[in-house]
Write a structure and sequence with these properties.
mainly alpha, Ferritin, 10 helices
């Protein structure tokens, strides 16, 4: 099964059509969900970056973040814009899960008693969750008379994936624990505003996504700390150093401290974030 699984993962990563990508990820996850032992790290091909193209659709148009228009949530148009932006994040997060599973070689696969888990199974599970989230949001767009690709978007999440492709430690620190963790911070406020607008169906979907994204940040934390241990680095200071190296200025608060704590952020990390914010 193993070779077929890896090729399916790489094929899904390269797929450009979002809905076909979701179908491929769901089929892949159904294959490995109850058989993580079939994902053997030693059997995984060690692909180069050129062999791991990330499929991006022709639409949406990608523009700088500061050029995206800001809309209130009191109108259908404003809610469509918000849902579209989150759907785009979820689409990129599918690719991030697939890329982590395909790219990084020699991570634990749960076959040794000292393994903290199964790295590859974890990230394929994330890809499967993100595919489901994308379909939830694209379905909501359809309810509101729109579809994914109708509005422009920015590509900051995937841009950071490219910047961190050289080092699994850096990837685990900065993508799940910075960019994806921002969702833990901002989604509760979005939910409150959508409740005020009485958009209860979008609230329902975002509440599901928020709960599951916390688990994804937890996965990133576990593997970041594991990678730090491999090379003898202290995790809290390493995270702070990477945050200041790659983000100038670092992301500002407010932070969802209870969710971040549940996702593995230490008191020291939270204190440093408060100082940044």
């Amino acid at each position: 099964m193993t070779e077929n699984v890896w090729e399916q993962a790489r094929t899904a990563l390269a797929e450009r059509d979002p809905w076909t990508k979701c179908e491929q990820v769901q089929a892949l996850w159904s294959l490995v969900r109850h058989q993580p032992e079939g994902l053997k790290a030693d059997d995984k091909p060690s692909w180069s970056s050129e062999e791991l193209p990330c499929g991006q659709p022709d639409r949406p148009e990608l523009i700088p973040p500061n050029e995206l228009p800001r809309r209130g949530l009191g109108s259908v148009e404003g809610r469509v814009a918000l849902i579209h932006a989150i759907a785009h994040i979820e689409f990129n997060a599918i690719n991030l899960g697939l890329d982590a599973a395909c790219r990084f070689h020699g991570m634990p696969d749960g076959t040794h008693g000292t393994d903290p888990g199964h790295f590859y199974w974890d990230w394929l599970s994330v890809a499967a969750d993100e595919a489901r989230h994308f379909l939830m949001l694209s379905g909501r767009l359809s309810d509101l008379g729109a579809q994914y690709g109708d509005l422009p978007a920015h590509n900051g999440l995937w841009a950071m994936a490219v910047k961190t492709q050289h080092d699994v430690l850096v990837r685990m620190a900065l993508v799940p624990r910075v960019l994806e963790a921002r969702g833990l911070d901002v989604t509760p406020g979005m939910i409150d505003k959508l409740k005020q607008a009485e958009d209860h169906e979008t609230v329902r979907r975002l509440e599901i996504i928020l709960e599951e994204e916390e688990a994804h940040v937890t996965i990133g934390t576990r593997w970041f700390r594991y990678c730090c241990g491999l090379v003898g680095l202290e995790p809290d200071s390493t995270f702070d150093e990477l945050l200041h190296t790659y983000f100038q200025p670092p992301p500002k608060g407010p932070y969802n401290e209870p969710a971040r704590k549940r996702a593995g952020f230490s008191e020291t990390e939270l204190a440093r974030l408060r100082k940044n914010g």
